[in-house]
Write a structure and sequence with these properties.
The protein is mainly alpha-helical and 145 residues long. It has eight helices and no strands. The longest helix has 29 residues.
Length: 145
């Protein structure tokens, strides 16, 4: 009987400790977005914007900011809740949408202009992100216009 009671008390103590640790981590995480993090994140977004039509890998932006890719990922996650790759992808898609809407360039010309290795890869990327092909997007946009 004493062993059961002791085992129960140990289990309860472990559960309380786990709760305290999780609570401490959530407080630390919510306050983790410091002014320095926000500054780094702002510089990251400015870099993405300045490299219009020439999106790069996370490591490129991290190098430009004198950070490791892992630290840039941590900062982005803390400040925005998104990874750097998500920001890069969203920015690339905005460029894709704009070029498909506002120009008469072919998909190949857009693909080349945005730095994709080929138009097939561009089409796959676009379809994965938008749920339709570039030509379907252009047709839908112009139909709704």
């Amino acid at each position: 009987r004493d062993e059961i009671l002791l085992s129960f008390l140990r289990t309860m103590l472990l559960m309380i400790c786990e709760e305290l640790i999780e609570h401490e981590d959530s407080i630390r995480f919510s306050d983790a977005s410091t002014m320095r993090d926000k500054d780094i994140f702002g510089k990251f977004l400015a870099l993405i914007a300045s490299e219009q039509y020439e999106r790069q890998q996370v490591s490129y932006y991290a190098y430009k900011l004198c950070l490791t890719p892992k630290y840039l990922s941590i900062v982005c996650q803390r400040v925005s809740g998104k990874s750097p790759m998500q920001w890069i992808t969203e920015s690339s898609m905005e460029d894709c949408y704009a070029m498909l809407r506002d120009t008469n360039k072919t998909v190949k010309e857009i693909s080349d202009g945005l730095g994709f290795p080929n138009s097939s890869f561009f089409g796959q990327f676009f379809r994965r992100q938008a749920g339709m092909t570039p030509l379907e997007y252009r047709a839908k946009y112009h139909k709704n216009r």
